[in-house]
Design brief:
The chain is of the alpha/beta class. Helices cover 44% and strands 23% of the residues. The protein contains 11 helices and 13 strands. Pfam families: SBP_bac_3.
Length: 284
């Protein structure tokens, strides 16, 4: 009897062990299948040998095409580093502020590095990795008629780019302001020069850079609304690339990559009032 009971127990244990192995195999199979079906997974990117990264083409000093036809800037330098660390080539896809989300969701790009501010609304439709910059909305205006307080904007035309944090902030928090919305950074700055608005609102960091190159203008409101963070973005649910990017941001922060990137790409464009600590996040 004892021998039979022992044999029965061993048989039952063997059955459970077999089931666990089968289930484990199914789980790994599903995971492998998911990786294979995701064109932007790390596995597929390495298999193709190329990562498609969305960047701006008209936003110095973050992403633009210089006079020699080369893509340069803070985000572009980061993109090259990401591709190098993945062991692949980079293919740049130029975007505007209002089509960054669509570029991800339509599988036109794998990763967005286009001065992308993290917001609750965006987090509902895409996934942000860990941030690598901090910014806030600023307001630039002519030195001859400087805007130094938000109250001066009531009932006036303020220029913004569609799909930006500045547009979202003024729409929700300053409804008495009339917004003139444009598709690109080039269009919005031309509108300001043509006097179509009393001021222009955008991320303060590159307003400093723009006003340095355009000395007839001043960033009269250096910060309005809450502090924000700039981060890489991937398609919603792309955990493979998201996890890899999070580790990459941690590694580059510890290596002081972003401080070096700042000194090379941003410092020449900013005035003395901007310091690396105003932009670069500290090592945790």
């Amino acid at each position: 009897m004892k021998k039979r009971s022992l044999a029965s127990i061993i048989a039952i244990i063997s059955v459970f062990a077999t089931l666990l192995l089968v289930l484990s195999g199914c789980g790994n199979s599903k995971k492998s299948s998911s990786q294979s079906s995701n064109p932007s997974s790390v596995q597929q990117i390495k298999k193709k040998g190329t990562i498609r990264i969305a960047v701006f083409g008209d936003l110095p000093p973050y992403g633009w095409v210089n006079k020699d036809g080369q893509r340069v800037g803070y985000d572009v330098t980061l993109a090259h580093k990401v591709a190098k660390d993945l062991g692949v080539k980079v293919k740049f896809v130029q975007v505007n502020a209002n089509n960054r989300v669509d570029a991800l969701n339509s599988n036109k790009v794998d990763l967005v590095l286009a001065n992308f501010t993290v917001t609750p609304e965006r987090k509902q439709v895409i996934d942000f990795a860990k941030p690598y910059m901090k910014v806030s909305v600023g307001v630039v205006s002519p030195k001859s008629k400087p805007i130094t307080n938000a109250s001066q904007l009531k009932g006036k035309n303020v220029i913004v780019t569609k799909g930006t944090t500045a547009e979202n902030y003024f729409t929700s928090k300053q409804p008495d302001v009339n917004l003139l919305k444009f598709d690109s950074k080039t269009q919005q700055f031309n509108a300001l020069k043509n006097g179509r608005g009393v001021a222009l609102a955008d991320d303060n960091s590159y307003l400093y850079a723009w006003s340095k190159d355009n000395p007839k203008y001043t960033v009269g409101i250096k910060s309005i609304g809450p502090k924000s963070y700039i981060a890489p973005a991937v398609k919603k649910g792309n955990k493979s690339l998201l996890n890899w990017t999070n580790k990459e941001i941690d590694k580059l922060t510890k290596q002081s990559f972003f401080v070096k990137d700042y000194n090379t790409q941003l410092k020449p464009y900013f005035g003395k009032e901007v310091k690396p600590s105003d932009i670069v996040l500290p090592v945790k």
